Amino acid sequence: MSKQWATWSKATAIALAAAASCGSVMAQEKIKVGFMLPFSGTYAALGVAIENGFRMQVAEQGGKLGGREIEYFKVDDESDPAKATDNVNRLIKRDKVDVIVGTVHSGVAMAMAKAAKESGTVLIVPNAGADAVTGPMCAPNIFRSSFSNWQTAYPMGVVAAKEGKKNAMTITWKYAAGEEAVAGMKEGFEKNGGKVSKQLTLPFPNVEFQALLTEIAAAKPDAVFSFFAGAGAVKFVKDYHASGLSKTIPLYGPGFLTDGTLEAQGEAAQGMLTTLHYADELGTPRDKTFRTNYAKNYKLQPDVYAVQGYDAAQMLAVGLKAAGGDITKKDVFRTAIEKATIASPRGDFTLSKAHNPVQDIYLRKVDGKENKKISIAIKGLADPARGCRM
Ligand code: PHB
Fold first, then answer.
1. pLDDT tens, residue by residue, 328-343
2. Is residue 334 part of a domain?
């Protein structure tokens, strides 16, 4: 046998063997998951809770999803929309991840959705509520395990009107999440006979609330609606209480105002009513197991952000399992998630056509260090997904 022939046949044999065992080679390769989350700034604790929740679900599945181990990549997005496109491209182009999990901030999430849509990379949003992500920007490869900004806020407006409030002022950060939450509350409130008299804003993530609190005190509305979260929510609720306003004008908002923050807010948050798709101690076996495991693993109580991270991993698991671990089987992956019922600690949910959870929104009341469920404010609420064509 000539030397040239021997080399050729050896190469062919290797190639054929590789092709024959393609499935098992793939199974040995890890699925690359890129976390793009805030690990610094006002939303840092939220990013950590999401990552914790995600990793805990993967661990509960024996460290594998769809038969494949996970390799993690991480980018701190600093909740900075100006850096978002570069940051997401680090994961897509440099690290070549299979799935992006992120983020918290709506402005950053919109840049991520654009990049995911263009590249076809799977994106699971474990918090950011930007209405556009499951509205005009909706796409077959984009999923949300959390909520839309409209979805958690609209019920608060309805509840405030039912509480007999007639005239409300709003206060929030001036960016998509704050603006969309305020629009949702206003819609629910005004449909039920209330009127929003004035909308106050300050730039994200500014926490100099004093001048705006003085304006509220002078105007004396029946209620105040607000969207704040993370460290900003801690400061706002404390400042509102310290100003004396909480004695006469109730402060309402989507539950981010008091979720994961009660340890720091203490007395200032007691008795506050908020609406959200999670509450502490829902009392179901599913939630109890989740809470016990989370507390054991992280020496921390879980919050809504941990739940959303946990469920992002559950959704990924459903898709990967159906696709036999092969995420390039895009239609199988997508259809499986679309058809699934996710057994979340929050309660079971399914996804809307636009890939946003259809879920119960709870009315909660702060009692000590817990957001206790009072009732279901709206059952099985779907975001209207205005502008989604899919
Ligand atoms: C958002 O920017 O969409 C956002 C951030 C923090 C939250 C909720 C929504 O807690």
1. 999 999 999 999 999 9
2. yes
